[in-house]
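User: Just a sanity check before I run the rest of the batch. Below are the structure tokens for the first item. I only need the designed sequence back.
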């Protein structure tokens, strides 16, 4: 339900677990409590089950921008905290990539320079190309948009 925002949280540097479908509400709440996590959901029933057990946010915004702003306001998410330090696919911290892997990067991006990072688990490479610049602009927009107080309800 919230996979896209989960990947954006990872892009901003946050340790984010994205639940797989079919997991029971109680199992999600138990995992959140065990791992000391904040649970994000659009499911009102799951929100009710989690209240008082684990910190939980009921995401009420429509669309990724409204959701991101709601999380910023509800949880004080800093969208520019540690950008591009985690793999957006498997959540692992990125490490500097070996120089020989630079040949896998498009030539235009290699010429632009910037750090080359890799995920030690899945092998995905990350570099400062146009896509990253567009993502940085979006993260900055979410961070700098004036607060409205809408888009999420937080229950500690």
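Assistant: Here's the designed sequence for the first item:
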């Amino acid at each position: 339900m919230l996979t896209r925002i989960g990947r954006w949280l990872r892009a901003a540097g946050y340790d984010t677990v994205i639940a797989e479908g079919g997991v029971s509400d109680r199992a999600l709440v138990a995992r959140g409590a065990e791992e000391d996590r904040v649970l994000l959901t659009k499911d009102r029933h799951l929100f009710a089950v989690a209240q008082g057990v684990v910190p939980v946010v009921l995401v009420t915004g429509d669309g990724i921008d409204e959701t991101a702003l709601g999380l910023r306001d509800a949880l004080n998410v800093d969208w520019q905290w540690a950008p591009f330090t985690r793999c957006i696919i498997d959540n692992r911290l990125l490490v500097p990539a070996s120089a020989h892997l630079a040949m896998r990067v498009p030539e235009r991006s290699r010429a632009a320079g910037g750090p080359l990072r890799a995920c030690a688990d899945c092998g995905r490479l990350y570099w400062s190309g146009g896509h990253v610049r567009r993502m940085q602009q979006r993260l900055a927009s979410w961070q700098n948009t004036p607060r409205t107080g809408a888009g999420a309800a937080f229950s500690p």
